[in-house]
Every structure is written in C-alpha cells, then in structure tokens.
Amino acid sequence: MAKQNRNNRKSLKNLYWFYALIILALCALYYFQDSSQIKIVDWTTFEQGAAKGDVDKIVVFSESGTAEGYLTEQGEKNPKYEFQNPMGITDAKKIKATIPSTDKIQDKIDQWNVALAAEGKPEIKVSYEKGSDLMKIFWYFGPILLIFGFMYFMSRRMGGGSGGGGIFNVGKSKALVFDKNNKTNVTFKDVAGLAEAKVEIEEIVEFLKNPQRYTELGAKIPRGALLVGPPGTGKTLLAKAVAGEANVPFFSMSGSDFVEMFVGVGAARVRDLFKQAKEKAPCIIFIDEIDAVGRARGKNPNMGSNDERENTLNAMLTEMDGFQSNSGVICLAATNRADMLDKALLRPGRFDRQIYVDLPELTDRIEIFNVHLRNIKVNSKLDVEQLARQTQGFSGADIANVCNEAALIAARNNKAEVDWDDFMGAIDRIVGGLEKKSRIITDDEKKSIATHEAGHATIGWLTQYGNPLLKVTIVPRGRALGAAWYAPEGRQIMPTQALLDEMCGLLGGRAAEEVFLGEVGTGASNDLERCTKIARALVVVYGMSDKLPNLNYSDSTGQDMGFTKPYSEETAKIIDDEVMRIINEQYERAKSILRQYAAQHNKIRDLLVEREVIFHDDVEEILGKRQWKSRTDEIMEINKKDEEKRAKEAEENDVNELDSLFDKKVRPKKAPEKSDNEDDPGTPPPFTKE
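Given the sequence above, the corresponding structure tokens read:
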C-alpha cells in the first residue's frame, strides 16, 4: 500500500510539472505578444510624440499613474518606437509611459492641442479610466483559465473520480475492493435455494481458506468459475455472498467498466486489475456481465469498435492463463449470454467450472419467500407453500418484487399486515399489468371475452399435459382484455403430446368463439403467434414431423448468420404444409372437446360473466377433479418420500448407536467354559464393565 501511495504521489508530481510548463509557455506568449503591440517609453519620448501628432488618442489610468497613447499612421512609421510584429498581429499599436502627475496631465494635453491646431493637425482625444492592468491581464488569461477548468473537469470525468491522475489515470482499474475492513453484509444464509450452485461456490471459498487440505494431495485450485443462468436468478447475489464469506480481498468489476472512449484503455484496465490482484493474492476477481467484453471474436469484422473489444478480450485471456502464472487469483464471472462468449475464454485453465444457476423449483421458491418475508409483517395464516405454487417460473428477483408489491398494496389499503389477497394482487400486477378500471366493455364484448377465456380453461383442464389452472379473469389488465393464469410445469423433457396439448390449449379460445358464438374475433392474435412458433419448432427443431422426422434445421451455436436457408425450396414447402397440418389438427381437436363438454364450458362462461374472476376450485367444481397429477404434485410426493426415508434412516442409525453403546456398557458377556486346568482362575463375574 505504501508503495502504491508513493507511485501515486510521483505520478501526481509529474502531472503538476506538466501543467506548470503549459502555464509558463502561455505567460511567455502573453508577454511576447504584449511587447509587440505596446512600446513602453519614458515621459520625454511620450511628450515629444504627442506634441508632433504621433498620437491621436490618450487613455489616462489614474490609479496606476500611467498613460497609453494610440499611434497614428505617422507614429507607427516613426523608427524611434522600434515595433516588431513576428506573429502578424494587426491590432492598434500604442506607446505607454508613467506620467509625472495625474492632476497636471490635462494641462499638458491642452498645450499639445493648441500647438497641433496651429499646425492644422487634429486634436488629441483624451479619456480617463480608474482601471489597471489587472483587468487586461484577466481578459488575456480568463479564457486560458476557463480552458484549464474544462480540462480538469474532463479529466475527473474520464478518470471516473477515482482520484489523482485524472486523464492520465484513465487506464487504471475501477474495481471495488472488499477486504477484512470493508465487507458486504450478504452471506450464504441470505442466498435461498440454489443448493447445487452454493455447494460449488462454497468449495471455492474453502479452497482459499484451507488450501493445504487440497494441495497436499496434489490438487490445484481452480482458476475460475462462470455463473450462467437467466436474469434475476441470483448470480450476482452469490458473488456478494462470496465477498461476505471469504477472508481474502474481493475485486468486483462490471464488464462495461473495461469499455472507454479511448483506444487501448480496456486492455490497460485488465492488466491493472490483475496486477492489483497479484499483489494481494490470494484473492477473488468478480466480473459481472462478462459478455460485454468476452464475446466471440471475428463475428463483426466490419465494425470499427470490434478491434478495441477484441484487444480487451485478448488481454483478459493472457492475464487469466498466459505465459505468467496467476497463482492464488480466482476469477468469478456472471452472464446470461454464455452462448455468445469466446471459446478460448471458456476453456479449462481460465474458467474451469461453469455453474448453471437455473430458475428456482418449488422447494427453492419456498426458501426464497421465507427470506424475503423476514422483514414484512404478514398474516400468520399465510400459506407460503401455496404462494410458491402460484409463482411457478418466477426468478428470485421476481419473488422479491412480489413481496415488495404486496407490502405496497397492503399499505395503500391501510392494512395492519399483508395477507393472501395482497400477494395475489401483486402477482396480477407484475404478470398482467395494472388493472384498467377506466376501460368500458359492453355486454357483448364481455360475453365474447368470457367465452374465449372459458375455452382456454376447459381445454387446459381436460388435456393430459395442460398446465394446472390457477384462475381465470376477464378484468382488463395492461393490453389484455382477459387472461387464464396457469402454473407452468417446467418439465425438463417435453414429449410430443405435451407440445400438442399446449397448442390445443392455446387454440381453445379461438375454437370456443367459433363453436359457441359462430364467429371469431381479433383477441387470439397472441395465442396464434405462440401456437405457430411451437408447431414450427416441432417440425424444424425437434424433428417430430411425420414427413421430416429426425431433422434439425436450427443452429444452436449461433455461427450461422441466417442469410441462407439450410434447406431447399421443396423442403420449405413441406415444412409449411406440416405446420399447417399440425395446427389444423389441434384446432379441430379443441373444437371436438368443447362440443363434448359444452354444458360445462357454458357454466364456466356464465360464472365468469357474473364474478369476473374465478379460481381453481370453481373450475374443479364444474369439471371435476383432473384425471392426471401435475408434475409439481409428483415432485412434492417424491420430496416427501425422500424426507420420510431420511428420517427413518436417521432413526435406525440412532437405534443402532444405542444398541452398540448398550453392548459395550451393560450387556452381560458369555461365561467361558470351565477348564480342566487347576490353575484356571474360574468363571469371571456375570456382569463386567470395560
């Protein structure tokens, strides 16, 4: 630290010398320019020139006791004044002298005017000023001072306000350093869910705390770990927990911090970052949103800024695993665009591990809710598990937003605690948007919307892979006039029938309009868009078509720019025909189901028109219990069985330990057989203690 302070003082001293040289040069220029326009003479020469008519105007400065005379053309030609003008300045030339007395100068000027009038020459004009040369100096140096002020302001901006050096410090790293004296308050206890990711991250922290435990066996500490996952899943939160748990320096920096308006700044900041890290090793470097500088090279050869980004990436590759070793420096990085990163950045030796941080499952969401509900006054009857079921597909950030919105809604309604209705309103607000109370809907439109949404609900309930229904509403929210809310199953593998059932459910609204109203409206545009994408993916991506089986025409690597199609025009026509066939089959299937369950559909529609919002239990009462279990229920049953199994094993282990202890302490030992040897001491006592 002392060495770094000395280096900073040395660079600052050099900077001050540079500024001093600039100021001296400008001062010399000022005096050089000033001597070429104003000739300082004695009073006798000034008086003689004025009497001869070399001066047509005199300015008397009463405070400084000087006078300046503006020369005529005759005076400028007088060799007595010896003017030199090497810079080509064409301003008026003057002579300047110190006057004997400011009180008698007017008498002298009157005498000169009388003499000049006698010779037929024009009189000398005179004016008096109280100012001094300081004002002139200000006018000369004012712009220079403004320039220096602007330069200082820009240097502070470009230097990021990081202190000392300004513009010359622009290549320094902007990383935030967390150490023993400056820790974050986030720990692994604040990170709910993410069990697998926490295990790997905690192991990295353990590497730094107890390296001998691993190095004694010949193991090497991993060079880096890349956190990959959708936005809001807790990647940066995990890094904050590492900063709070690790007892080593933690450097935090964003990928965009390496990007600057100057060429070469990104590479310089990378080198400076790793230089500081090596001085404080062992330590951790965390780069958030690394895709800002780690994108694959050579993708945009025509872009001028691409070279600068590639130079930054090259410097990062060299520093992470180049000729020089970085022992004791572990790199953490986070991104949600791992497919865009350069392959050289992802190889072992730079990022040895890729930790995928996925959307939380049901049990993870329960833990996340419990974390965010610590500081919120909630109703004691609030069912957190049911809340987690209602937020299928939500990330950790979404759940935090739900808790905050629920508290805001409760406070807006002057409640003493947050209850279930507040959380439901928060979920509706986040997913669907703000309720449009001012939108006026006629009875015919209301019936049409209810028919459409009842169609979705009916098809989703009666198909095997339909998502579990949460509620159906015809209250306008955002841009939607109505909505059916489901809890997505989040399946890891989607069978063909699951995709077909999803398409059938999406087409259920349009099919209900045609079956029960005799005409279709424009409200199904989003449903048709999603349905078409699924059907096209069935044919082009998943190879589930009868005419084009086991073929994939997509490019998962992102290398193809998409300028040409990877199939012929004949194949393109087959793809279009297959997409049309699949959609039409599911549309006819949806209409067939709705005709079969027309009475139940109409009950749901009428109930929607009456209440505007109906829930899972209302639909279950009309359509009966679902024939198939949801994946969430299956997972909960598996988790429950696992917990019962673990509890049973723990109980058996406790019993075995008690039996073992009993055997050692109190259980009677078998008496040895009687020996014929007279020297045998005989049978020991029946009970012994070791």
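The radius of gyration is 43 Å. Try to locate this feature in the token string yourself.
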